[in-house]
Amino acid sequence: MAALPEGGTHTPSVRIGPIDLAARVDEALAVQAVAFGLAPEEIEVRRHIVLRHLEHPHARALGATTPGGRLVGFVYGMPNERHQWWSTVVEPYLRATGSAHWLDDSFVITELHVLPDFQNRGIGRSLITALTDAADQSRSILSAIDTESPARGLYRSLGYQDLARQVLFPSAPKPYAVMGAPLPLRRRG
């Protein structure tokens, strides 16, 4: 587990390391609900999705925990497979931009969330780089709401570039961007 220094006078240090996401799914979804603004009915749907994803033999998860064990951030992902739901939705958009090959030999960042009080302290960066550093694939892909946001800024700083924009997922109220980066991810400075 890697330790991050204190982010401020009221922010305890956090540790980044492997977590049993299935055992801590409700804690993780509570983080996601606050960070992403999910309604209770969305949380229940996502709970089933996360647990289904974790059945993939190569799914991996990392958490950011305080010294007391409180989960304040998490990331998980897995090698991309073209038959997975996410890939089938984004593939036509990627094909239209000549980027469909990004679906091959890629590690997908499925979710990355950090509680707002712990953001801007390097936790998200540490989570995603630690997860992708262990990937066997040559690149990483993800989707993010297609708006200029701190999350998109973080992804760009790591080397992710837009592969397709205005991607519409069924039942998602906002369009997404699909982003990709070669691995290992870019480091600061």
Structure notes:
- Helix 1 (25-36) crosses helix 2.
- Helices cover 30% and strands 28% of the residues.
- Mean pLDDT is 93; it is low at 5-11.
- The protein is built from five helices and eight strands.
- The chain has an eight-stranded mixed beta sheet.
- It is globular, with a radius of gyration of 16 Å.
- The protein has helices at residues 25-36, 40-53, 85-96, 123-133, 150-157, and strands at 2-4, 14-18, 60-65, 71-79, 106-114, 139-145, 161-167, 176-182.
- It has 189 residues and is an alpha+beta fold.
Beta-sheet strand percentage? 25-35%
Task: Tell me the series of helices and strands, N- to C-terminal.
Answer: EEHHEEHEHEHEE
- Helix percentage: 25-40%
Number of strands: 8
Strands of the widest sheet, in order across it, are 1-2-3-4-5-6-8-7
Number of helices: 5
What is the mean pLDDT?
93
Give a short account of the largest sheet: 8 strands, mixed
